[in-house]
Amino acid sequence: MVKGKYLPKDEVLLQHPILVFVFLVLGFIVMDPFELSPVGGHDFRPVKNDIASYEEVMGNWPKDNHSRLARGDKVFVDEVFGPESLEFDIHGRGPYAGLADGRIVRWMGQDGGGWETFAFVSRNWSNEICAKGVNSTTYKQWKFEKQCGRPLGLRFDKSSGDLYIADAYFGVLVVGPKGGYATPLATNVAGKPILFANDLDIHHNGSVFFTDSSKRYDRVNHFFIMLEGEATGRLLRYDPPTKTTHVVLDGLAFPNGVQFSRDHSFLLYTETTNCRLMKYWLEGPKNGTSEIMANLPGFPDNVRINEKGEFWVAIDCCRTRAQEVLINNPWMRSVYFRLPVHMRYLAKWVGMKMYSVVSRFNEKGEILDVLEDRKGAVMKLVSEVREEKGKLWIGTVAHNHIATLALESLL
């Protein structure tokens, strides 16, 4: 370079071929022309998440040093497929479970014939197309989900005995106490389809509150909701007298589980992407407002109440420092998730080692107990925890079994 003479930027780059190579490689990765990355073929638009800092949450979160969740038992192995939500009817029978193959099944007891098909969410369901057995929780089922259905949240109306269902593709449905084909109730809002109904609960006035996790992605593509951090999810309400559906809250980041308080003065919902448990007030001076009830160490799914009015939250754990960097820098996610590398390796590189955590909260959001299964002995991915008959009944969207844990074993 001649002293005192300025070289244009392109000539400087030509004198540094390594920089040229790096820019070309980065440009190639971002364009992903051969769609080799986990987000290939998608209009991937990451944004910054509204999430509590890693230090704030992980520095104060209690640990279960005895891994008590691992004391549970795997039951019904390879008999139920992806049983996300578990319910018991007004007569105490059950559990009922919504499966990955589109059915709702009911446990009739060992002497009563075991599992029986109770209901279908789709009239297009067929054994030949939908019943994939142990493969129902794998990609082999995904292309059939829109035909077969994917029932997620289940709730019984204690007064009528009707079962209400949140199905990822068919919205909110209801089926009578004798089962059969479920009747659709809420499939759209203001003429636009509900893309990803996830969980629901029934208010004592009969209204059904439920989550629609995204207006951009359906259940098969749910990972993109989290990778982008997009917040197009909603809390919706279906009113039976008028048969209309209304938007209660909008702009939510992967809203998931739903649960009313014991007196129905407020409703809890989880925001999976933002790793938090939210409270929406239905009565009192805060009526119509939301607040954070608890920031969580991982990604929450369903929340369920027990007879004491306490709340069990199912969490896939845990957050990492490297993940924090990606969360706060959307441009890094644009590059990182366009690398031509399988998603499981990308997750491993940022320290993600998924395992199950179950937490119990009181109405104030105070942590009463934390149960962990760090080695995934009983459940690697947990979707719901239901306290019933002296046990915790634990469902999972990803595996082919249920787990149970006797409450007395926790003492």
TrEMBL record:
Domain Strictosidine synthase conserved region: 198-284
Compartments where found: Vacuole
Cellular-component GO terms for this entry: endomembrane system; vacuole
GO MF annotation list: hydrolase activity
Residue spans crossing the bilayer: 12-31
Keywords assigned: Glycoprotein, Membrane, Signal, Transmembrane, Transmembrane helix, Vacuole
Family: Belongs to the strictosidine synthase family.
Protein name per its UniProtKB record: Strictosidine synthase conserved region domain-containing protein
Source organism per UniProt: Daucus carota subsp. sativus (Carrot)
